[in-house]
Amino acid sequence: MNKLLKPIDLILIAVLLLGGIGFSVYTKHSTKSATAVIYIDGEIYRKAELEKVDKPYELTLPCSPKATLLIENGAVSFCEADCADKVCVSTGKLTKRGDTAACLPARVVVVIENGESKDIDVLVY
Amino acid sequence: MKKKGAILAAVAVVILAAVIVCDFLFNKTVSDTFLAMNTTVSAELTGLKSEDALTQVKEKILYLDEKLLSRTNENSEIYSVNSGKTEVSNELASLLNVMKQLEKNSGGAFCIGVAQLTDLWGIGTEYARVPDEAEIKAAIKNCYDWQIDGNTVYLPEGVKLDLGAVGKGEACDHANSTVSFKNCKESVVAVGGSVLLHSTVPKALFKVGIRDPLGEANEYCAVLEIGEACVSTSGNYERFFEDESGKRYHHIFDPSTGYPADSGLMSVTVVTQSGTISDALSTACFVLGIEKSLPLLERYNAEAVFITEDKQIITTYGELENETVTVTNDIYTLGEAK
Among A36, A56, A72, B325, whose Cα sits 20 to 30 Å from the Cα of B288? Predict the structure, then answer.
């Protein structure tokens, strides 16, 4: 009988290995559900998993000028802001991975992490 | 025999494990989104030293903004120049020389001596208004007459410099040196409307969406498939205000008239190997219009995609093998610049 490795060990190694490969493939290709990450002044203020939103709600952020987000199932948008240009409000709804909206005067950035990706690598505007 | 088999199996396992670990390390992707240069910066870098590179890219962009180019930050060099300082660093001097060259080559469509004009209109601020003719004339007076000689800057009275039209592109160039030095495999750094696309994979292609000028901010109307490059867009939808009668005034001024440029375009996207150049050219071409832009683009070996007010997407990309422009919103028609 082999002293170094028993057949059971080999099976165990094979299982672990397959599991490992499976896991790394899974983490690379899995699309975790879309999460809105809200930054205020460079710090993460809150994360919201957009698939889990049952009822749309408004979230007023502790920033100045005041800004309010509308968080819905699968989407997030700035719905109101006290800034002068309202660029953040006109950005519209963010739904896909990498979608970004910012209110510069309030130093707020909202980015979608994970979720379905866009068909492009980057947007120029 | 059995023992030999077991050792072989163990070796195979170790090699496989090493491959997985290496693949994980070398393809490590990190990303960050932050505010700088009055816009949003998003960076996504892949490579063994991607984390390190990301920190440096961020530091460099913040440094450029706060210490060199910002017109409002009291600690920046441009702020000091606008307040009377005449001796500048080598870094700023070399940038100002490039700017002077661009002003000449664009026939004055590009000009950085117009900070007073930007302030006068105040577009994007709560003080936005249509100034009267005399105010505008005074604001553009002598705007081309600033000089750079060695490390000495000369500003005529009333003229102040604004590097807002190239700062984002300059940031892309700095990001480019960092990711190249750190040997990143693939990098996409978007500083507002200026983007760096970098890859060590030969013939890698990136898909760049061009914002739909008539759609919402995250919508695109064309996709540009290109290799490593810097891409910049200037559009009339980015910052604007409407007067009482509903007339729209955007933020890209024709320095020769002092009014928002009116060349029949909604946006221009320029592709070159330098971010500073593509950023400056996108502004210049927006002011010049398609026809007058072509010689300038050729001079800098740049390609462009124009979106006109009558919904045409006109490109300088001809029948190239790889690089293509695809229209994705059928209210637009595709044409080639002659």
Answer: B325
